[in-house]
Design brief:
This protein is mostly beta strands. The chain has one domain. Strands 1, 2, 3, 4, 5, 6, 7, 8, 9, 10, 11, 12, 13 and 14 form a 14-stranded antiparallel beta sheet that branches. β10 and β11 form a beta hairpin. The radius of gyration is 24 Å and the shape is globular. It starts with a helix and ends with a strand.
């Protein structure tokens, strides 16, 4: 007959193993063709900006401190899903309002996007350059995102082809055509963003790391010649929480991306020019930090909400005119981004 001590010890081991197994979880994004996820989105913070003094503007050369507060909706529409579970996803913004107020002069500005139309006002006066972008048009490109949240690439959406919801894309207007080149660069860098979710089963307290490897715009170790990661992100599974009656897994995120301006400028020189003879700014440096928490619904396979602190710094030089020195400009942003899945689209 076994000793009661050994029996008790065996039960503890069995119960402990069962408890660990019960709290292990697979975190995967479950894309579904035709499904639209709508997130209530809020962005607030402070922007410090300075543009070169040679720019024809009353604020040229003056450092500005601007408070911003934005609210709106972001939609992720899954156009299709491949055998590996990678979703081709179109991002849309049905409506968004961004209020800004310069603390130096006290001048208010507002950007509104509603009903497919955009409007910009400064000190209450409408601005012609703020009109003309059709937000209801199906985006001209979609993002390919894997089950672990890694951006695998971008894919153009065929003109005049119906989307999953039956909407018809519209041809890009002049404003859209003028931003093709910056969009291409943003797409290249976005392609290197880290995988948010782990490729294995995890449980509370588990940590994983995701380096951003994109040699085209990453810095190089001057001594060894080794290409450094463009950035690095650390994630930790903080535990399971009940939010609005849902069982969600809380993921802590902390990371930074540091772009090599010289490499970006070299790529820009190789790309087709879209601005005629206009002076193209030269990037000196660009960094982006992210820290906060994301709540993931493992059963539904989707992000439920997020609270992130963002910090970015961009420094550029405007090419000098003959006989004049290049002038620096910069933009810093510190603020918060919150997203919450809307129960009804």
């Amino acid at each position: 007959m076994k000793s009661p001590i050994f029996v008790a010890a065996g039960l503890v081991c069995v119960l402990g193993a069962s408890n660990n197994a019960a709290h292990a979880v697979v975190l995967e994004q479950k894309w579904q063709t035709g499904k639209i996820l709508t997130y209530d989105t809020n962005l607030s913070g402070s922007v410090n900006v300075k543009i070169p003094a040679s720019i024809p503007s009353p604020i040229a050369g003056i450092p500005l401190d601007v408070d911003i507060d934005g609210q709106g909706k972001m939609q992720l529409e899954t156009l299709r899903v491949d055998e590996a579970g990678t979703g081709t996803v179109a991002f849309k913004f049905p409506d968004f309002t961004l209020d800004a107020k310069d603390q130096t002069f006290g001048i208010p500005a507002k950007f509104t996007l509603s009903g497919g139309k955009t409007n910009v006002t400064i000190a209450g006066k409408p601005q012609e350059w703020g009109k003309g972008w059709g937000a209801n048009a199906v985006p001209t490109s979609a993002v390919k995102i894997g089950k672990n949240g890694h951006i695998k690439g971008f894919e153009p959406i065929q003109a005049n082809a119906p989307a999953a919801n039956g909407a018809t894309p519209q041809a890009p207007n002049a404003i859209g055509a003028a931003t093709i080149q910056p969009s291409m660069m943003a797409a290249l860098i976005s392609q290197a963003l880290p995988a948010l979710l782990p490729d294995k089963e995890v449980q509370k307290g588990d940590q994983w790391k995701s380096d951003v490897k994109f040699a085209a715009v990453a810095r190089t170790n001057e001594q060894t010649g080794e290409v450094l990661p463009l950035g690095s992100f650390d994630m930790i599974l903080k535990g399971e929480e009940n939010v609005a009656g849902k069982s969600l897994w809380r993921i802590g995120v902390k990371g930074k991306v540091d772009v090599d301006g010289e490499k970006v400028n070299a790529l820009s020189k190789q790309a087709p020019q879209t601005r005629g003879n206009a002076a193209v700014p030269q990037l000196e440096s660009a960094t982006q930090t992210v820290e906060g928490d994301i709540w993931f619904d493992a059963q539904a396979g989707q992000i439920y909400n997020a609270e992130l602190i963002l910090g970015s710094n961009t420094s550029t030089f405007l090419p000098a005119k003959p006989g004049k020195k290049s002038e620096p400009s910069w933009l810093d942003f510190t603020g918060t981004l919150t997203m919450k899945l809307a129960e009804k689209a």
